[in-house]
Amino acid sequence: MTSKTFRLPDQPCPSCRENSLALTESVENVDYFGSVLLTTIYCAICGYRDSDVSLVEVGEPSAIRARIDSRKDLAMKVVRSNSATIRASKLGISIHPGISAQGFITNVEGVLDRMQQVLEGMIAHLPPKRRRRAKVVLANLKKARQGKLSFVLELRDPSGRSAIAGSDMTKIKKRPLSKKELEKLGNIR
To answer: For the segment 67-118, what is each residue's pLDDT rounded down to a tens digit?
Structure first.
């Protein structure tokens, strides 16, 4: 592991507004994926922290699909770069990267947990019709987390820095993104 820390002079912390930000970058070797870049910006005064994760080697724009059929499949590892869209069509969920999207390393169950937390946080603020639909999606998420509902998890990454890996690689397929798919993602190359 190689780690470097840099002070960010004249960069105010988004939380406390003090010029006390530092940036730490480290490269770690992660099973199945190889070298991964971990980047963290933090404030020594108030404790603000913002992190990102991505594969060091940039690949071609790609779609990676993992077939999840059992509780065991929930242990598949997921590296999501900050540019990747996550889809679980059967569950009715798509997560598109925004301006403050972060990369992360987790497993399929962790992705489902993140989806569930976001949906639970939004549900009270939705109009009645969308709230009913969200409750159906939540019920399906819970079944999927228990390994009782099969689905496909897909990452579409125009940067090629995301991946899915597990003990049964026959359940994981990777293909290049088409020019049309890149246009839909807002990334024309």
So the answer is: 999 999 999 999 898 889 999 999 999 888 888 788 888 999 999 999 999 8
Q: Is the dihedral of CA 143, 144, 150, 155 positive or negative?
A: positive
Domain(s) of CATH 2.20.25: residues in the chain: 2-55
End-to-end Cα, the chain, rounded Å: 33
Q: What's the rounded Cα separation, in Å, for the pair 145 and 71? A: 7
Which residue from 130, 107, 139 is spatially nearest to 31, judged by alpha carbons? 107
DSSP letter for each residue of the chain: -EEEEEE-TT---TTT--S-EEEEEEEEEETTTEEEEEEEEEETTT--EEEEEEESS---SEEEEEEE-STGGGG-EEEE-TT-EEEEGGGTEEE---TT---EEEEHHHHHHHHHHHHHHHGGGS-HHHHHHHHHHHHHHHHHHTT-S-EEEEEEETTS--EEE-S-GGGEEEEEPPHHHHHHTT---
Quick one: pLDDT band at residue 188, thresholds 50, 70, 90?
very low
Domain 2-55 has CATH 3.10.450: no
The CATH number given to 62-184 is: 2.60.120.1040
**163-165 β-sheet, strand order:** 104-107, 77-80, 163-165
pTM: 0.75
